[in-house]
Amino acid sequence: MDEALEKGPVHVIRNNQPQYVVLKEERYQELLDAQQEAYVARLKASLEDARAGRSQRFDSARNLLNAIDSAEGQ
C-alpha cells in the first residue's frame, strides 16, 4: 500500500465500479481542514448577509422550497 500511495490516492474498484479511495493520513487531515475552513467561511458569509439585511424569512418550508425553485428557474 505504501508504494501505491507514493503515486497518490489509491482507488479501490469493486464490480467494475469505484468504491473507495485510500489516502495518506496527512492528505485526509488536509481535506478535513479544508472542509472546516469552507464551513466557517460559509457561516461567516451567512451571518454577514443577515446583518446586512440580505436575508428572507419564510412562514413554511414549502414557501422556502418554492422560492428556491423560482430562483433556480431564472
Structural summary, described in words:
By secondary structure, this protein is an alpha+beta fold. The chain has one domain. Helices cover 59% and strands 15% of the residues. It contains three helices and two strands. It has helices at 2-6, 25-51, 61-72, and strands at residues 10-14, 17-22. A two-stranded antiparallel sheet has the order 1-2. Strand 1 and strand 2 (17-22) form a beta hairpin. The chain is elongated and about 55 Å long.
Order of helices and strands: HEEHH
Q: Return residue spans where pLDDT drops below 50 for at least 5 consecutive residues.
A: none
Helix/strand/pairing class, anyone?
A: alpha+beta
What percent of residues are in strands?
A: 5-15%
Largest sheet: 2 strands, antiparallel
The residue fraction in helices comes out at 55-70%
Secondary structure: number of strands: 2
Q: Quote the distance from N terminus to C terminus.
A: 49 Å
- Gyration radius from CA atoms, angstroms: 21 Å
Number of helices, counting only DSSP H or I runs of 4 residues or more: 3
Record the strand order, biggest sheet. Answer: 1-2
Mean pLDDT: 95
- The structural domain count equals 1
Shape: elongated
